[in-house]
């Protein structure tokens, strides 16, 4: 226990023995002097009690309560959620700072704000180094480098608002704390003065109780004066009770009240010692210590050691559990450290594996970004290695970025050379875009278009601009060329328009039901189609559509299949004869028909040979009948193919 701890003092364990039970003359108290007085009068019994108390358990509570003593609302700092700021991005950190400023009292968030500021500065410092390296690699002078972004500007403004608010808060509070301290010292002086009063003891006691109430309401004082002020106060309260022993009834009544209340505090502390939420238990224990110290006076001597020991034991139990909790937390931090070391090693391996293509580097960049995210999400590490781990991580990432920047610096050099090559092609395109010598310039324009595709990437900022420039020049030339050719072949386009109309009419045509009339109608349309003539080369697909529509119309006729086949074949011949390569196409068709004739003859021969296996079988046998039926079918098919062959031979005459 620290020498300024006064929990025993609250029970009057450091009593000042007064000769003849009368008060001694004292000079006006100074807080520091009073503390010295008490240390000088410490008895052997006090030393033994001191050894029973875990000093760390009480000193930690005393320090926290002293901090709260400056402002009672400062205790709300325990309710402010602590987040893993290390895992947050700069934007997230700025937003979290803004949230704290809006939803919490300014004096309760200093710890969170300091952690956020440290994390933000570390992350922005890393980004700043990357940007600086890129700036220098691009040829910039280090002395001219400057970089900021919107997130940094926002954070700076929020932190400025925090500093202004906290400064105003402390400025206003300073005067109040000093005044409250003076008031409390004056109350102590008044209590001291009661020791020399010889009037009615009941009246003196009433004045004493009023001074105690006045003390409780005197307001917060500076934290560095807190313990000494309370020690001094309790010292003189105890002296008054020693003086009061002449009137045992009044003193015993106070002792009993204090004893009952302290038992309740002890019972609650012992309940908290069983609570698994160690931080919640510790915070409530602080409140109990505050009540013990600030609200209650001493108890009878025979109970002092007993109740103090019970309260100290409960305090020590909670403290030990809390220490064990943080020990387990340290183990978790060690595991987090192992994870982060593994991540750093993986980033280093990626940095050592040099890539030589843009796609490979993009893959590596994504991998490193994922590892960076994993690093930030891995959790806290032991405080003693936090800075060194962060520095190692930054160095490894920086090493990766140097390799990346070197690759893209060299790539930019290649892209600049590509840019110059493409500009040369643009110059050629623009010089020839208005040429009328289509026979000479068209191959040239096609060549530079092909060359453009082979050159490769240029800087992104120039890519769209030069592509539009080149495309516009090429399109201008080819649009002029196509316009002239269209003018020269206008009759072909007119023919195309006519064929489109004729095709639409054919699709809309309804059959009359008279096969002969419908066939003649379709033949007439074929003749009209043929009479229209040629269309542009790139529009000749329409011929295929027309004859497909003709075939569909023929299929709707209710005619004998062989006759229908011949009608459709004649339509097909009309289409073949209408083609520029009609002789070649007719030759191909004739060869196809001959091949089919050979296949059908071979099939008939095979079927006739199969009949020899049925020499002793009755002619009414289903298998035999089926073979005869197939032979008849193929012979009829053979006649159709022969008729087609004769028809196509007639096309050559």
UniProtKB/TrEMBL annotation:
| A Pfam family the protein falls into | DUF349
In this chain, composition skew of type Basic and acidic residues spans 49-61, 74-85
The alphabetized UniProt keywords are: Coiled coil
Q: Does Cell inner membrane appear among the keywords? A: no
- Annotated spans, Disordered: 1-85
Name the domain of life this protein comes from.
Answer: Bacteria
* Coiled coil keyword on record: yes
Q: Which residues form a coiled coil?
A: 559-651
Q: Which InterPro entries does the UniProt record give?
A: DUF349 (IPR007139)
Q: What is this protein called?
A: DUF349 domain-containing protein
Q: Which organism is it from?
A: Winogradskyella poriferorum
Q: What lineage is this protein's organism placed in?
A: Bacteria, Pseudomonadati, Bacteroidota, Flavobacteriia, Flavobacteriales
């Amino acid at each position: 226990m620290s020498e300024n701890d006064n929990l025993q003092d609250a029970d009057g364990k450091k009593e000042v023995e007064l000769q003849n039970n009368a008060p001694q003359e004292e000079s006006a108290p100074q807080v520091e002097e009073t503390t010295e007085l008490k240390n000088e009068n410490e008895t052997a019994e006090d030393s033994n009690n001191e050894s029973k108390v875990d000093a760390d358990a009480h000193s930690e509570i005393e320090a926290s309560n002293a901090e709260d003593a400056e402002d009672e609302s400062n205790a709300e700092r325990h309710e402010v959620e602590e987040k893993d700021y290390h895992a947050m991005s700069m934007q997230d950190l700025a937003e979290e700072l803004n949230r704290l400023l809006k939803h919490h009292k300014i004096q309760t968030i200093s710890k969170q704000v300091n952690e956020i500021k440290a994390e933000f500065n570390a992350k922005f410092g890393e980004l700043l180094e990357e940007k600086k390296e890129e700036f220098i690699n691009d040829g910039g002078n280090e002395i001219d480098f400057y970089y900021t972004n919107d997130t940094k500007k926002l954070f700076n403004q929020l932190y400025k608002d925090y500093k202004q608010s906290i400064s105003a808060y402390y400025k206003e509070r300073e005067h109040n704390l000093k005044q409250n301290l003076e008031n409390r010292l004056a109350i102590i002086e008044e209590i001291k003065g009661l020791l020399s009063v010889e009037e009615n003891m009941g009246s003196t006691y009433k004045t004493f109780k009023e001074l105690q109430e006045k003390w409780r309401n005197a307001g917060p004082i500076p934290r560095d004066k807190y313990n000494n002020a309370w020690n001094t106060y309790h010292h003189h309260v105890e002296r008054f009770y020693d003086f009061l022993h002449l009137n045992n009834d009044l003193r015993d009544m106070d002792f009993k009240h204090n004893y009952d209340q302290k038992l309740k505090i002890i019972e609650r502390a012992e309940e908290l010692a069983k609570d698994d939420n160690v931080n919640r238990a510790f915070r409530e224990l602080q409140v109990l210590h505050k009540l013990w110290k600030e609200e209650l006076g001493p108890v009878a001597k025979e109970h002092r050691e007993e109740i103090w020991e019970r309260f100290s034991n409960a305090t020590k139990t909670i403290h030990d559990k809390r220490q064990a909790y943080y020990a387990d937390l340290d183990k978790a931090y060690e595991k987090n450290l192992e994870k982060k070391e593994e991540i750093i090693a993986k980033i280093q391996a990626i940095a050592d594996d040099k890539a030589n293509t843009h796609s490979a580097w993009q893959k590596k960049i994504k991998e490193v970004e994922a590892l960076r995210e994993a690093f930030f999400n891995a959790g806290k590490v032991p405080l003693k290695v936090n800075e060194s781990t962060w520095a190692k991580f930054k160095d490894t990432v920086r090493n990766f970025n140097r390799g990346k920047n070197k690759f893209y610096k060299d790539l930019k050099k290649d892209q600049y050379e590509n840019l110059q090559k493409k500009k040369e092609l643009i110059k050629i395109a623009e010089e020839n875009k208005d040429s009328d010598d289509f026979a000479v310039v068209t191959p040239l324009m096609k060549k530079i278009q092909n060359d453009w595709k082979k050159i490769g990437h240029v800087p992104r900022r120039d890519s769209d601009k030069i592509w539009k420039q080149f495309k516009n020049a090429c399109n201008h030339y080819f649009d002029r060329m196509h316009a002239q050719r269209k003018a020269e072949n206008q009759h072909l386009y007119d023919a195309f328009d006519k064929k489109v109309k004729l095709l639409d009419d054919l699709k809309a045509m309804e059959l009359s039901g008279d096969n002969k009339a419908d066939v003649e109608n379709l033949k007439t349309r074929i003749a009209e189609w043929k009479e229209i003539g040629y269309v542009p080369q790139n529009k000749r697909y329409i011929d295929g559509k027309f004859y497909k529509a003709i075939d569909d119309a023929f299929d709707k006729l209710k005619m004998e299949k062989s006759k229908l086949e011949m009608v459709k074949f004649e339509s097909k011949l009309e289409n073949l004869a209408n083609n520029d390569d009609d002789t070649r196409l007719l030759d191909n068709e004739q060869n196809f028909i001959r091949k089919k004739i050979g296949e059908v003859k071979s099939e008939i021969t095979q079927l006739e040979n199969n009949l020899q296996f049925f020499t002793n079988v009755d002619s009414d046998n289903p298998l035999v009948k089926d073979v005869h039926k197939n032979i008849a079918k193929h012979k009829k098919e053979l006649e159709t193919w022969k008729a087609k062959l004769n028809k196509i031979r007639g096309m050559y005459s």
